[in-house]
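Async update (no meeting this week)

Hi team, since we skipped the sync, here's where things stand on the single-chain job. The sequence we agreed to prioritize is pasted below, unchanged from the tracker. I ran it this morning and attached the output directly underneath so nobody has to dig for it. Comments welcome in thread, and please keep replies under the output.
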Amino acid sequence: MGLFNAAYSLSGQIDTEVAEDERLARHTSYRIGGPARLFVTCHSYHALRRTVDVLTREEVLWVVLGKGSNLLVSDEGYEGAVITLGREFCRFTLSEDGVTLTAGAGAMLARLVNEALTRGLSGLEYAIGIPGTVGGGLSMNAGTRTDWIGTQVAHLVSYKPGMGLKHYQRDDIIWGYRACNLAHDEIILEAAFELEQAPKQDIRERIERHLSKRRRSQPLGLASCGSVFKNPSDLDVGSMIEACGLQGFSIGGAEVSPMHANFIVNKGTARAQDVLEVMRHIMEQVKERYGIELQPEVKFLGF
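Output:
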């Protein structure tokens, strides 16, 4: 059996940790999700390459998971392997020019912002309240309505199974709204960000303004995946959902946040099915009122 052989081959390997039937609710910001058949933490590039080779040979489906901040996992879990990036992928280095900061894909976005602040570098302050990792943020071009992380990228390194390392300059990649055009099986390993020198106090004040705005407008104290739907064109999806009278609407343990209507929060007992049913209801109501088909921003695993 592929899964058994994969687990046997990977167990005990250098820089590799393997767990079986790991509950993914422990690894997502929604605190929702059944078990992954295999959960593999790779602490180095060689461990990652070896892991992907083994899983491919054994015909085991796999996916890379950051901090699960934009993910809804099925209640039944995932019948494959989840790979997460460990130690070697959480490092930061500053180039000799003093303004190019390189971050591993496994590092948290919030830590990237703080690393930039420590070095007196400005340009990433808007990302302080965005949950998740650098790799996850890059793959979906995370940001606000006016600032996207792709615009700060100088160059990027990824791993393409069967091809090895790939190097990109910023303009080699098409950065879209909550997306980029890297292949779905391409794993981002690190990226370098072009920033600007600025007084630390000015950077700190901008960070605080962004944090204060998020605290006032988003239910940060409750489990969620962040924004559930993409904004259609120049419209604000949260305002549209609010106009449909859906704030506070709930099914099971999933509720449309009274604070921000584009957040569906887990009140503590939500299942993935509850979230899906709330999403369907929102989509139906918005389609009926506005004639617009909402597109999910949240990703799905195991469905």
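Quick observations from my side:
The first strand starts at residue 16 and ends at 23.
The chain has a mean pLDDT of 95.
Reply here if anything looks off.
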